[in-house]
From TrEMBL, chain A:
Gene: trpB
Pfam entry (one): PRAI
Residues carrying N6-(pyridoxal phosphate)lysine: 314
One Gene Ontology cellular component: cytoplasm
Domain Tryptophan synthase beta chain-like PALP span(s) in chain numbering: 281-603
PROSITE patterns: TRP_SYNTHASE_BETA
InterPro entries: Aldolase_TIM, PRAI_dom, RibuloseP-bd_barrel, Trp_synth_b_CS, Trp_synth_beta, Trp_synth_beta/beta-like, TrpB-like_PALP, TrpB-like_PALP_sf
Cofactor requirements of the protein: pyridoxal 5'-phosphate
Name used for this protein in its record: Multifunctional fusion protein
Automatic annotation (TrEMBL), chain B:
Lineage of the species this protein comes from: Bacteria, Pseudomonadati, Bacteroidota, Flavobacteriia, Flavobacteriales
Annotated protein name in UniProt: Tryptophan synthase alpha chain
Record Pfam families: Trp_syntA
SUPFAM superfamilies attached to this UniProt entry: Ribulose-phoshate binding barrel (SSF51366)
Family: Belongs to the TrpA family.
Record function comment: The alpha subunit is responsible for the aldol cleavage of indoleglycerol phosphate to indole and glyceraldehyde 3-phosphate.
Length: 618, 254
């Protein structure tokens, strides 16, 4: 069962309550309330806590304005708001380009000794939750409980919040309630006035005691509702963390302490959005691939990340990270690259910002990706060959990390995928999340709905995938398909299908699935595509694999190459070989005729021409 | 009492040597250890090679790659060490990255270390907080000392935290670098050495990274209980093989 603490008012008190990790914190925006939240801003909260705005018959414009201003994840409607009002609010919010998440709507109903549940019906579609409060003089905060037996007749399956007069004296009663039928759809407990020293000021000790006394109940349901995002310790389920040598601790810790704060700064957001628009060319189109759809008898949309400046999704992240580096006062940028796409994207933003750029690249990759090496050099970057180990991406990453160890003060390391020690996987994911943010409104325009049936992306480390999935992770009606490179075949010994061949372990600073010997030595993957040729996956994807949230598929070199050629011929788009892996699933897996399948077209194929030429003897 | 703690009580500056197990040859492990003890080395770090040693420079990375090619594995190393306590008395520490230990099973690994007479572990990529929360009880159960690193960038507050978790010595990384990168110490290092010496930590410190000869050894041990030499010894092995151990140690001691 979840916990909501409502009626927060004072900054220090908010932080103290947040430290107890409730699931929701409520802020009342109602002038007549003694707990009216009239402060300019809400302090930075752990992302696991949903900020909830409480309104009483407020104008929708005002609600929307406050939702945006405070980045509220939920609104609780305490007045006589109609079902139409709720619909209108939800739609207005969804239309906002900046709406990066679904707004949860919690509609409140007050109960004393009886209640006509039939009035709930028209609210069922729009509202995410109901909240049952005690009927009294005020809209909420009356300080006594209602007759919970009324809920025995609850006819709905909509989860609800139990509210009204919950305090330490009610612990026993709550325990009984939880064991009764009436609590079947009870989702959360909502507390307020019984934990106050004065209106709006919460008693931390009492809250702690309450949480402790109800820990078996409060901890229990947490496991039922799966979180696919990073938690406050930097883990996705059991994966993630920061397994770094002490030499890197100050750098990574500096980033960890600052990244969310910096990303939330309006100035930062403005600059990021502006550059994505004017420099990268976003939004990237969401293109309905008609001929491809006809061929596979389903509705295929391509998210055209290949049309970004530099030809792939990689630049979304490098723009974000270079702005981050500047905010942190760094003057020197390092990066690793495999195929050279991330190296080019990093060299590009360094040129844009006038910062020194050093790119580590495996000696073997330098030889097979000459055009990208030339691009980086033209952009002013120094390309340093990684001569150790297998002399490919994994070793380039090692070298970049070593550089960072040797230059801890002035250097920022722009990791190119959703990998590495926390906070990198989350930071990279958030910068790439623009992909699914756009898909939502673009699909709404074209299909009348924001959620496709499937989102599909190829996975090396998994940054384009993370961005493509991000806003759909907690939308159960959206299937997630992750496509790995099978190389010459899963059992061939020449593969990069980490979810099949990998085992839990530690690589480049995080715990994730990785390909290794039984002694824990990291092995060399193989794929025809340099961008998928990585022995691990990002920790988020390891979690998606382990929990079964995502369906993992692996595609061989030859199937990928054929799919690349097919897209070229059917749609006039030559995809990167990485992307071709994602496209190859249509030959291997059935979709329904009316399924809407969005594929991240992560990069364009110019860089792979030589490979295509060799393969098809063009 | 753990051999490391006993050694730390001796009234002398300690010389500790790191070598990569399985290098230059797969079966050099025991003879290198015996030669080091015979030549007066106080403590030994046996490097368990790893494919991706992030904190190491080219010398140790190369020796690790070759050792793995030679066939070194966790099992092989444990097998080589099975009778080591019949002939060797000085403290022995295994230094390696976390993934091979994690795959072996942390508890099984620790148990085996205790059986073999290993006194401690140095695991550069196992962060102190993860150790503290998840593994400390296991290490203690098997009488192993875990050694943590600090660097010039480590804050005083964090050094105090590391000191509170440590029960042997603190490994002071001499400068912001990977292994084998430095030659000699400048003012910045000596200022750092002095700063740490003044903190009066519960655990004594041993300085590593950048110690390669008598001069740097003497400099470092002015401020700390001892010093660790790794890359310079590995380089010497490359040239002279396991038999060259004695000549190397003599150049440091003189």
């Amino acid at each position: 069962m979840r916990l909501k603490v409502c009626g927060m008012k004072y900054q220090d008190n908010i932080e103290q309550v947040a430290a107890l990790q409730p699931d929701y914190l409520g802020f009342i925006f109602y002038e007549k309330s003694a707990r009216n939240f009239d402060t300019e801003s809400i302090p930075e909260l752990p992302k696991s806590i949903k900020k909830t705005g409480v309104f009483v018959d407020a104008d929708i414009d005002i609600v929307i304005k406050l939702v945006n201003k405070h980045n509220l994840q939920a609104v609780q409607l305490h007045g006589k708001e109609s079902p139409e009002y709720c619909d209108d609010l939800k739609n207005r919010h969804a239309e906002l380009v900046s709406a990066s998440h679904n707004l949860e709507i919690i509609k409140v109903f007050s109960i004393k000794d009886e209640f006509d549940f039939s009035i709930l019906k028209p609210y069922e579609n729009t509202c995410n939750y109901f909240l049952f409060d005690t009927k009294g003089k005020h809209p909420g905060g009356n300080g006594y409980t209602f007759n919970w037996n009324v809920l025995n007749n609850y006819p709905s399956t909509k989860p609800f919040f139990l509210s009204g007069g919950l305090g330490l004296n009610e612990v026993e009663k709550i325990n009984q309630f939880v064991n009764s039928k009436a609590s079947k759809y009870c989702y959360a407990l909502d507390v307020n006035s019984k934990f106050e020293i004065e209106p709006g000021l919460k008693d931390i000790e009492d809250l702690k005691t309450f949480k402790k006394n109800l820990s078996s109940i409060l901890d229990n349901n947490k496991e039922i509702v799966m979180n696919y995002n990073v938690d406050e310790k930097g883990y996705y389920g059991e994966f993630g963390g920061a397994f770094i040598p002490e030499m890197l601790y100050p750098n990574v810790e500096e980033l960890r302490q600052n990244y969310l704060k910096v990303m939330a700064e309006p100035e930062f957001k403005k600059e990021f959005d502006q550059l994505l628009k004017d420099y990268v060319g976003r939004p990237s189109p969401l293109y309905f691939a008609k001929r491809l759809s006809e061929k596979y008898n389903t509705k295929i949309y391509l998210k055209r990340e290949d049309l970004n400046h530099t030809g792939a999704h990689k630049i979304n992240n490098t723009i974000g990270q270079i702005l981050m580096a500047k905010r942190l006062g760094k003057t020197r940028i390092i990066a690793e690259t495999g195929a050279g796409q991330h190296g080019v994207a990093t060299a590009t933003v360094c040129a844009l910002m006038g910062l020194e750029c050093i790119v580590y690249m495996g000696e073997i990759d330098i030889a097979r990706q000459a055009p990208n090496v030339a691009r980086m050099k033209m952009l002013g970057a120094t390309v340093v060959p990684a001569l150790s180990g297998s002399r490919t991406l994994k070793d380039a990453t090692n070298e970049a990390i070593r550089d960072w160890i040797n230059n801890p003060v002035n250097t920022h390391y722009i990791i190119g995928s959703a990998i590495g020690p926390h906070p990198y996987p989350d930071m990279v994911t958030r910068f790439q999340a623009v992909i699914s943010e756009e898909i939502k409104w673009q699909l709404k325009e074209q299909e009348g709905r924001k959620n496709p049936d499937y989102v599909v992306a190829c996975i090396g480390g998994g940054s384009n995938a993370a961005g493509t999935y991000y806003h759909y992770l907690h939308e159960p009606d959206v299937g997630i398909i992750a496509v790995e490179a099978a190389g010459l075949g899963i059992d061939s010994g020449e593969s990069a299908a980490t979810s099949v061949l990998g085992k839990e372990g530690i690589i480049h600073g995080c715990k994730t699935l990785l390909m290794q010997t039984k002694d824990g030595q990291i092995t060399e993957p193989y794929s025809i595509s340099a961008g998928l040729d990585y022995p691990g996956v990002g920790p988020m994807h390891a979690h998606l694999s382990k929990t079964g949230r995502a369906e993992f598929m692996s595609i061989t070199d030859s199937d990928a190459m054929e799919a690349g050629l097919e897209l070229s011929k059917l749609e006039g788009i030559i995809p990167a070989i990485e992307t071709s892996h994602a496209l190859a699933i249509f030959g291997q897996r059935e979709f329904k005729e009316d399924d809407v399948v969005v594929v991240s077209l992560s990069g364009r194929g110019d860089k792979d021409l030589e490979n295509y030429i060799d393969y098809f003897k063009i | 009492m753990n051999r490391i703690n006993q050694k730390l009580q001796e009234n002398k500056k300690l010389l500790s040597i790191y070598f990569t197990a399985g290098y230059p040859n797969i079966n050099d492990t025991v003879s290198i250890i015996q030669n080091l003890e015979k030549n007066g080395v106080d403590m030994i770090e046996i490097g368990l090679p790893f494919s991706d040693p992030l904190a190491d420079g080219p010398t140790i990375q190369d020796s690790s790659t070759k050792a793995l090619k030679n066939g070194m594995t966790t099992e092989v190393l444990f097998d080589q060490l099975k009778d080591i306590r019949k002939t060797v008395n000085i403290p022995l520490i295994i230094m390696g990255y976390f993934n091979p230990m994690f795959q072996y099973g942390v508890e099984a690994f620790c148990k085996k270390c205790q059986e073999l007479g290993i006194d401690g572990l140095i695991i550069p990529d196992l962060p102190v907080d993860v150790y503290h929360q998840e593994y400390q009880a296991i290490f203690e159960k098997y009488g192993l000392i875990n050694v943590f690193l600090i660097t010039p960038q480590t804050s005083d507050e964090r050094i105090r935290y590391i000191d509170s978790i440590s029960n042997g010595f603190i490994y002071m990384v001499s400068s912001a670098s990977t292994t084998g990168a430095q030659s000699g110490f400048g003012e910045e290092q000596t200022a750092y050495f002095e700063r740490i010496a003044k903190m009066n930590l519960k655990n004594q410190q041993i300085i590593g990274f950048g110690i390669s000869n008598n001069e740097t050894f003497t400099q470092a041990t002015q401020y700390a209980k001892g010093a660790i030499i790794g890359s310079a010894f590995v380089k010497h092995m490359t040239k002279h093989g396991a038999d060259g151990t004695g000549t190397f140690v003599k150049t440091i001691q003189n």
